[in-house]
Amino acid sequence: MATFKPSDFNRKADFGTVESKQNPNNGSIKKTFVKAFGLWYAPRTRTLNQQYQVQGTSLDNTKLIVVRHNAALENIKTAQIDGVMYDIVQYSPDESNAIISYDFVTLKRRA
Question: Is the pTM of this model over 0.90?
């Protein structure tokens, strides 16, 4: 089990959905992020070996973050960090009976 210090969770990510909304001025449709909730996260860096292993797979060019266990993440598909939208590619919840548990979330930047 991974252990983290509370000070590691020093960045904030918003989780929610993407909705298509019409611009009232010109009628064009734009996809906008609708926030459901926000969580503090700890960025997780991959080792060189791990980066080589994911190269050429669907996990290539992804970002890994760690959040405190939250069951609400189960149905969320989109995250936003610093104004940049990401798709949640993989969600790995900690299902142990530990008092403090962590979920690993793999994000891929939206094109």
Answer: no
| Measured distance CA(64)–CA(104) in Å, rounded | 7
- The phi and psi torsions of 86 (rounded to 5 degrees) equal -130, 145
Helix, strand and coil percent figures for the chain, each rounded to 5: 15, 50, 35
- As a whole number of angstroms, the distance between CA 93 and CA 63 comes to 16
Q: Could you give the CA distance from residue 91 to residue 15 in angstroms, rounded to a whole number?
A: 13
User: Looking at the predicted structure, is the pLDDT value of residue 2 above 80?
Assistant: no
C-beta atoms surrounding 25 within 10 Å: 6
Nearby residues of 56 by Cβ (< 8 Å), 6 or more positions away: none
